[in-house]
Amino acid sequence: MAHCTKCGAEVAANAAFCGSCGAPQSAPSGAPSAPATPGTSPQMAENVAGLLCYVLGWVTGLIFFLIDKRPNVRFHAAQSIVVFGGLHILSFLLAAFFGFSLLAGGFGAFGFGVLLYRLIGLLGVVLWIVLMVKAYQGERFRVPIAADLAEKIFGKS
After folding, report:
1. Are 140 and 50 in contact (CB under 8 A)?
2. pLDDT tens-digit series, residues 101-131
3. Of 22, 47, 59, 147, which sits with the fewest C-beta atoms within 10 Å of its C-beta?
4. Whether residues 99 and 117 fall in one domain
């Protein structure tokens, strides 16, 4: 039985592709190839990892910042933490401030607060889509204030 040259899984002697990883197989040979080295795994593509930094906002940014050491991925992770963490905190503070103003009897301030809250939500969705698309395209799209702040907090990647 032959072995896949990429992942080391057993493949049929006449198989064109590995059933486990999908890698194309070369012409069959008599000697089985060496299996993959234990403890090593193929890394995720850098553009996919950059996209995943933004998928769940600052949470996935934090996860990828801690587990991935590639500079481009760390840039996207740090920017995700700053952008979406900042928007999350700002939304919470606005909701608390204008919620208390409603209790104090200020319907005008509450209406303004709802408008600001919705604008921040819209900004978050637009940034979320743009940043994921740019990261998947391999670009280092810098959000003007947030990217500089991320470099100051997390270091230059």
Report:
1. no
2. 666 565 566 667 778 888 988 999 999 999 9
3. 22
4. yes
